[in-house]
Amino acid sequence: MSRVIRVGTRRSLLAKTQSGQVASAIAERLGVEVELVEIVTEGDVNQTSTLASLGGTGVFVSALREALLRGDVDVAVHSLKDLPTTPEDGIALAAIPPREDPRDVLVARDGLTLGELPSGSVVATGSPRRVAQLRALGLGLEIVGLRGNIDTRLGRVTSGDVDGVILARAGLARIDRLDVVTEAIDPLQMLPAPGQGALAIECRSSDAGLVAELAEALDDEHTRAAVTAERELLRALEAGCSAPVGALADVAEGDHGPEVWLRAVASAVDGTVELRRSASGPVSEAAEIGRRLAASMLDEGAAALIEGKQQA
Ligand SMILES: NCc1[nH]cc(CCC(=O)O)c1CC(=O)O
Known about the structure:
Elements: E1 4-9, H1 13-30, E2 33-38, H2 42-45, H3 62-70, E3 75-79, E4 91-95, E5 104-108, E6 122-124, H4 128-136, E7 142-144, H5 150-158, E8 164-168, H6 169-174, E9 183-184, E10 199-204, H7 208-218, H8 221-236, E11 245-254, E12 257-267, E13 274-282, H9 286-299, H10 302-307
Parallel strand pairs: 1-2, 1-3, 6-7, 6-8
Antiparallel strand pairs: 3-10, 4-10, 5-8, 5-9, 11-12, 12-13
Helix pairs in contact: 1-7, 8-9
Bound molecules: ligand PBG.
The ligand NCc1[nH]cc(CCC(=O)O)c1CC(=O)O binds near residues 79, 168, 171 and 196.
């Protein structure tokens, strides 16, 4: 009998697409049969609440983890930026594949960029991090909330309801909708969420053989180092995925081997104050670099900025 690995997925187009891509990679690289199993999460069902009011980070993740722990599925695929920064008992983060372009993008009417949108234009986003950084640009935009899957979000622009929406480029890339992007926003203007553009492949820690196989076949060392720095920073700031915190690490070759370059921002949601800082060091110290940068940002008052956060 051939071995079958069951891969759990949420039922949105994005989730099914990214889980399907991981499932194909597992089938090909491990030479096994793979089955996709749809799991419904609270975040999928409850479209009327804001993400923050549903409890932020955990909503898209817990149903998949429960299915893993029950043994209903063997592998779960998440957007890494939706994963809480504290590890879950019994769950292993087996692989982090190479990351997509992590930038946020603008999808606006008439092909407009942020700089071209007239003052007073309405831009929709549900993320306090995006709200804060948009406001700090001082473009005179009116910012309104946004929820729902990618299609719903894009529909707000095509219907003329808003002038633009901000989304993660990676999500659009995965469902092959980069055609709608009118500007990829420079990280100097808007730092993405920690982990944005990366996937997390989880399985039961007790499946030691599978953990090792997935790591060997699918894990990307540099992506893992970059997102480790970003997520350790977020954890040390004691901020969740709905906090006005952005972080982006790149790996570049240094004099003594590969180095992590981490940039981060903590903002007041009203856009009046922004703390932008950076740190770098060897890839082997990725977690330490994140913690060190967080500590120095906390010394400069980051906690007060983050705690003053409002819901978008
Ligand atoms: N917040 C929900 C979410 N989680 C992951 C992505 C996009 C894909 C990714 O960043 O990996 C999105 C949508 C968005 O922010 O536009």
